[in-house]
Amino acid sequence: MAKVIAIDGPSGSGKSSTSRRVADRLGFLHVDSGALYRIMTWQCLARGVDTTDPAAVAACAESVGVECRPEGGAIAYYVEGEAPGNRIRTPEINAHASHVATVKAVRDRVTAILRGMTAQGDLVVEGRDITTAVFPDSPARFYLTASAEARALRRQREEVAKGIANQSAEAVKASLLARDAIDSTRKYAPLKKADGALEIDSTELTLDQVVETVLAALPPDWKK
Question: pLDDT digits over 159-183, tens only?
Fold first, then answer.
């Protein structure tokens, strides 16, 4: 049976960097669950769907064909044979993704896709409900957090480096806090620390320190 390391936390808490590094160290596949919600959002917007209409969003999401392929140590996504790339990383997608992610039908579809990935091998899965709803029985569950200021600065630097936005740190912070509020209060599978998950505050920690903390907490027979 595939091993699954589940990592949750808000935007900018270090989930992606930590998950990729842990996956690389262990030879697991890295899985970005948030990209699936962004793909659903991207397709809704491309098709002119009102993202505040749950029924319309659910219908659109159901029709989106997503192929999952192991590539370069991660699960890569393709829609109609095409990789979305940075088109799902724009401020517009950010502004709509949380609304799309509140729709139960969307979350059910994404959860099914994620669980199906265990057929591909051992996984490090990052997201917002991985420890609570997707893989609640994993013996390796972590909740990453950091101050709003630290998270906003990280996200701003990431967006500038990718050339996809040039927002101020304050604007990024406001966006992150708005998404935190939506994600933590949604009715279905809200963002929260799961009982039994190890919380790691990365505000004052280096990436290496966070990674070592995760690796040290894994079941003994999972370590290399």
Answer: 767 776 667 778 888 888 888 888 8
By the 8 A CB rule, do 11 and 148 touch? no
C-beta neighbour count of 17 within 10 angstroms:
17
Query: Are the beta carbons of 139 and 219 closer than 8 angstroms?
Result: yes
Give the span between the Cα atoms of 21 and 154, in whole angstroms: 17
R_g of the chain, CA atoms, integer Å: 17
- Structure tokens of 130? 């991985």
User: In 10 A of CB 147, how many CB atoms?
Assistant: 14
| Segment 85-130, tens digit of pLDDT | 999 988 899 889 988 999 999 999 999 999 999 999 999 999 999 9
Token pair in block for residue 161: 């480096």
DSSP per-residue letters across 26-38: HTPEEEEHHHHHH
More confident site: 156 or 16: 16
From CA 154, how far away is CA 161, in angstroms rounded?
11
